[in-house]
Design brief:
Layout: H1 5-22, E1 28-30, H2 34-42, E2 47-50, H3 60-67, E3 70-73, H4 97-104
Parallel strand pairs: 1-2, 2-3
Length: about 110
């Protein structure tokens, strides 16, 4: 079941803060929600891992760009509750560099 921004932030931001305080290692937040990402970044996260490739929340690319954090652009097949049921045996999907640039720019062309 999807959780609200408040619930997801409550589950993750304190953990990010504690890990950042305890180590020098880079810390990533795995979320599709821009507000959760921003709160985690404010708590010390230096990377955002987004399984929707910055398409699930229209503000995510802006948060990443404005904060300058690293971004891991993932993709999913289907929805979170079904995406693990059927795995392909070959790599059928690849994001082109131009698509990557558009997503990172929030849809604006960089070329």
């Amino acid at each position: 079941e999807p959780v609200s921004v408040e619930e997801e932030a409550a589950r993750t931001v304190g953990v990010v803060r504690r890990i950042v305080a305890a180590t020098q290692a880079p810390v990533s937040i795995d979320t599709t929600k821009a507000e959760v990402a921003m709160r985690a970044i404010e708590a010390g996260a230096t990377m955002v891992n987004d399984i929707t490739a910055l398409t699930g929340d229209e503000a995510m690319a802006r948060v990443a760009a404005q904060t300058g954090v690293a971004v891991c652009i993932m993709h999913m097949q289907g929805e979170p509750d079904t995406m693990q049921r059927s795995r392909p045996t070959t790599m059928w999907w690849r994001m082109s560099p131009s698509t990557c640039r558009r997503r990172l720019a929030g849809g604006a062309e960089l070329e």
